[in-house]
Amino acid sequence: MAEIVIKGVAKNFGSFTALHSVDLTIADQEFMVLLGASGCGKTTLLRIIAGLETPSQGEVWIGGRRVDHLPPRARGISMVFQNYAVFPHLTVFENIAFGLRMAKLPSPDVDRRVRRTAGLMHIEQLLKRYSGELSGEQRQRVAVARALAMEPDVILMDEPLSNLDALLRLEMRAELKGVLAESKTTTIYVTHDQVEAMSLADRISVMNGGYIVQADRPTEVYRNPAARFVGSFIGNPPMNFLPAKPDGAGRWHVAGQSFAGPRTGGAEFAIRPEDLHPAQTGLQAEVRVVEPLGPHILITAQVAGQPFRALLESDHTITPGEVITLAPVPDRIRWFDPETQKAIA
Ligand code: ATP
């Protein structure tokens, strides 16, 4: 069992706070993705779990054992980074065997484990090659195989696919998901790529400015952002936001339209671009740019002077300069508190 519990973990670099008292529990065998823009603290959190960085405050527990005072090798984890870190002067076999030999595993066991994990990563045919001769993708397969060969309770990965081109990334993503699901490890995976996060994660922790803003299943994070930041960060294009004013009769004025909304307080209206469709009544959008994207067209417009995007079926003929009427799908409308920036239920 390798549940990971992070309790009140904070990290300061001098006067700069990279992490503010983070609490997070990752279940045994869960695939958790840390997602956020550059500088949000995701690598710092991963390095603290790995033992490569000391927290300024807080505790890290792995499998019921407090580990924040233990060195990395005593924590039962394997790591995979974006820069491969395979030894070019060793063969693929010796690279995968490296940690097993350090752990003084008997030779037949080393052989068995190397062949098995090389098989999982489809690199059996490369075992005798020197790693320095391999392509970036092959080296990354070696790095993953080496981590898996340790049969760790926990695998930590920091942007492991970011050096691959788009097509290979897609392929490796699906393979990683399959292999890690079978390996029964607990995985923490750092990325700034939201598509990668959505596709791989059991849960996503969305980070911003050293905080975890929301930790939930991908569909929840997408459909029910806990905060405005999550709606504005996840989704390509992201959520649209419009100011709302109470009409005094229990409804809200949004860009000249009336909507049912929250009972009290201030509110901001939010809708995803794909949750809009052309209709007789709705929001008046002045179309600025029309981009065909294959199955959809992306409309960039202004609604009540605010930037606004809609993703529509590609059979609509819409031209720049036109004013179109867009109706939001009622149960996809979300509301945020303009002061706290949190979602209003
Ligand atoms: P990236 O994807 O760019 O690595 P990240 O979300 O992983 O971003 P971190 O690497 O965790 O971000 O860094 C968080 C913040 O802490 C950044 O502003 C970074 O500049 C700062 N930081 C990280 N390591 C150090 C350090 N050793 N000394 C000073 N500041 C640091």
TrEMBL record:
Keywords from the named record: ATP-binding, Nucleotide-binding, Transport
Pfam families cross-referenced by the UniProt entry: ABC_tran, TOBE_2
Keyword ATP-binding: yes
InterPro entries from the UniProt entry: AAA+_ATPase, ABC_transporter-like_ATP-bd, ABC_transpr_MalK-like, ABC_transpr_MalK/UgpC-like, Mo/tungstate-bd_C_term_dom, NA-bd_OB-fold, P-loop_NTPase, Transp-assoc_OB_typ2
Superkingdom of the source species: Bacteria
Gene3D superfamilies named among the record's database cross-references: 2.40.50.100, Nucleic acid-binding proteins, P-loop containing nucleotide triphosphate hydrolases
Domain annotation ABC transporter: ranges: 4-234
Keyword set includes ATP-binding: yes
CDD domains: ABC_MalK_N
Gene Ontology MF terms: ATP binding
Family: Belongs to the ABC transporter superfamily.
PANTHER family linked: MALTODEXTRIN IMPORT ATP-BINDING PROTEIN MSMX, OSMOPROTECTIVE COMPOUNDS UPTAKE ATP-BINDING PROTEIN GGTA
Name this protein carries in UniProt: ABC transporter ATP-binding protein
Organism this protein belongs to: Roseinatronobacter alkalisoli
